[in-house]
Amino acid sequence: MKKILFPTDFSESATNAFVHALEFAKIVNAELILLHTFEIPVYDSQFFPENYAVIYSSIELAKFEMFKDEIPKLRTIAMERNLEDIVIKHRLMDGDLIYNLKNAVEEDNVDFVIMGTSGVSDWTKFFLGSNTNSVISEVKVPVLCIPADAKFKKIKTIGFTTRYREKDKAELRKVLDIARKTNAKVKSLYVKTSSSDVSDVTVKEWENEFANENVEFLVLPSDEVKETILDFILYKDIDVLTTITHKRSFFESIFESSFTQKIAKEVSVPVLVMHET
């Protein structure tokens, strides 16, 4: 059985993402591990010499009580969607979210991370961040990011962006495996710029190699890469967009604020970020 780590702060956007996490767990036959983290404020012990420990204990207790109160609400959502059979486990950890998330992935042998994003600031925080504070740079498993207003619907079409590198084939096969489980079609996009170095022969080789799979290869000539990806999402009815962490600079350009704002406002599709293997 696969394992999905779902970090939550029990906000509205996280609760919306929980529905996606439940449905995805059903598709890939996985269990969910709910992760809630909190940071204890730093106090100067010289000002609180006697009740220093009491302050920390009370904060931890309050967080535990909140955690305990919120879990039944999520279980109710699972029951309402007839998904109460999905195994749900819990982790309550104090400290930095990214640090705890990375540790949880390693300790629990997690296969996927699914998380909600409430706006452009969240996208910037999680995708761009610093080299050490970014989920994408720190977590080496696929991350499915759910915009706050992306309501779950049956996955019929999965978009896959590629540059026709040999190593992209392994990620495409993973996506095709997911697609088979939900009877979805995969539409692969390559934006061919004026400086492109991908030959027609390479494209044809891919088409031949994946001829027996439910995948369509699209090569769109344009020097406006980001806008072409946006049009691809809009006009090809993409339900989930898959991208691979190529060069960090390219990835950052895709998720810079203005473009992300367009995705969030105009299309609101979940983004599945794959890692190079």
UniProtKB/TrEMBL annotation:
Record-linked InterPro entries: Rossmann-like_a/b/a_fold, Universal_stress_UspA, UspA
Pfam families documented for this protein: Usp (PF00582)
Domain UspA: 1-147, 184-274
Matching Gene3D superfamilies: HUPs (3.40.50.620)
PANTHER family, per database record: STRESS RESPONSE PROTEIN NHAX, UNIVERSAL STRESS PROTEIN UP12
Similarity comment: family membership: Belongs to the universal stress protein A family.
Name this polypeptide is given: Universal stress protein
Native source species: Flavobacterium psychroterrae
Organism lineage: Bacteria, Pseudomonadati, Bacteroidota, Flavobacteriia, Flavobacteriales
